[in-house]
């Protein structure tokens, strides 16, 4: 049985900040709740056979950053509530000495003294969760979708954009609070402390202690790529849809860097165990959706033919597409193995009488 061609909504839903590549160049926006659909003229197919979805009454021609910022506050409020809950959980676990953070950095057993660091961790965890949701939404929009969804495709596309904006805000808050913690515990003058914290938190290579020498630049790379790649969506009509699609494919790299940063430096997942394994488990849906998108792309031009073309360029593109699909299959297999065994080559929990010499500073 052949797969049905994508519906007009599927073909029109575009990728936005933080997603996988989208199936069209002209994403639709969302009208206000309860707005009836407007009468539209018959849709005109584009050059590659895709038909744009109709716009609803009162809808702007293209989504704007201002409109999406206004629409992002409910999602942002939920993110702040989740962050507060995570902070309380981290704080209580530190105070009760049940967190691996106390083993990694014994001096942080003073929960009140390092509250800003734990708040930074809470924002980091919520940023990773929101990034995960943004990527999931992007892959759903750009690949084959279930027949029934709880919300319409345009509303799903707007949710994808707002979660992306909130992800950028959460990442920025995570970094700023980390810098603030460095300032609080610096005994130098205020100006010197701020300058040192800025270098260590925001300049690659500025943090030169322990695992942070690798983990901090990885996190900085995720931050510095996420913001421009996300905001490029709002100027894609200026840079051209083809250029935007090529750049937007790098968003998955931002997410990989975020997970890598977490596994390298997150003291809550410092050692092998169920919590660290859970982080790996959350990557399975993303890998599966990415594989499904590659195997059943919405764009006909992205489908992998049974045989490469005659030209050298066509053969190269065919080989790259085949290699990408095989690489994702290998990632899925590796993730299943890590989740099944609970081992990823990470650190083992030390004996109870052994204290880590890891230095937060």
The pLDDT mean sits at 80
**Low-confidence parts:** 1-53, 56-60, 353-358
Major sheet details:
none
Distance between the termini: 60 Å
Instruction: Please trace the helix and strand order, writing H or E for each element.
Output: HHHHHHHHHHHHHH
Strand fraction equals: under 5%
SS elements, strand count: 0
Radius of gyration: 23 Å
Structural class by secondary-structure content: mainly alpha
| Proportion in helices | 55-70%
Choose one word for the global shape.
globular
Note the total helix count.
14
Structure described in brief:
The protein is an all-alpha fold.
Describe this structure in words.
This protein is mainly alpha-helical. It has 14 helices and no strands. Helix 5 runs antiparallel to helix 11, helix 5 runs parallel beside helix 13 and helix 6 packs antiparallel against helix 8. The chain is globular. The protein starts with 7 loop residues before the first helix and ends in a 20-residue tail after the last helix. The N terminus is likely disordered.
